[in-house]
Amino acid sequence: MNPEAGRSYPGAFVGIMLLLGSIVIGITLLGLGVITAAELADPGHFLAVAFDPAVASALWITFSAATVAVLLLGLVGTSLAYVLARSRNRFAGIAESLVDLPLVLPHTVAGLLVYLIFFSRGPIGSPAAGIGLLFEDAFPGIVAAMFFVASPFYINSVREGFEKVPPHLENVARTLGASPLQVFLHVTLPLSTRQIASGAALAWGRAVGEFAAVVIIAYFPMVISTLIYSRFTTGGLAEARSIAFVMILLCLCGFFTYRALIRFGGKRHDRV
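The chain above was modelled as a monomer; its predicted structure follows.
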C-alpha cells in the first residue's frame, strides 16, 4: 500500500464531511444574507419598526415568559431528570416516553393539550380561576405552553448529565456521612453544570420560538412570533420581515454570548 495515499485519505474524508456539513450553515447564511440585504436597503423603515412599542412589548413578554418557564423546569425538571438517570425499570421507560412526547406532537396538538388542561373549565384552569389565576389570553398561559414544549429539551439534557456522574462518587460521599440532599447539591449538581446550562439554553430557545401552542391558549398578550404573524397578515412582508430581523439580531447576540461564557467557564474548570 502506498503510504502517501494512507496519509491523504483523512484529509479527503474531512473535506467531504466539511462540504456536506456546510450545506446546513450555507442555507442559514443565505437566509440571513437575504433578510439583511432587504433591511439595509431601507434602514429608516427598520428603525421605525425596531422602536415600535408593540415590538418592545412582544419581545419583553416572549423573553420573560421563556425565562419563567425555564426556571420552573429547573425546579421540577431537574428532579425528574435525576430520578430518570438513576432508575433502571420499565416505569422509567414509560416516563421517558411521556417526557419525549412534545418532541413528536404537532405544535397545534401540544397547544390543544395545554388548552384543555388550563382553560377556565380545565382540571387545573378551573381551580386556578377560583383564586384569580387565569391562563386564557394571559401571561401564565404563555408560560404553560412554553413549559410544555420546552420540557424535553431541558429534562433530556440534564438526565444525560446526571448519567455521566459515576454513582460510586455519590456512594463515597454517603459513606463519609453526607445526606442524600448534600450528595446531590455538592457532588451531582456541580458535576452536571454544563449539561444543565446547555439544557436551559436549549429549552429557553425552544420556548422563545414557540408559536402554535402559545397562540391556541393565549393569542393576547402577543409574543413575538404571534406579532410577526399578525403583522404579516395585516401589514405585509416588509413589516413582518423587519420584526423578524430584530429577533434574529437579539437571538444571535444572546447565543453568541452564551457560547462565549460556556467556553470561558469550561477553560476555568479545566484549569482548576
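Residues 30 and 36 are 10 Å apart (CA to CA).
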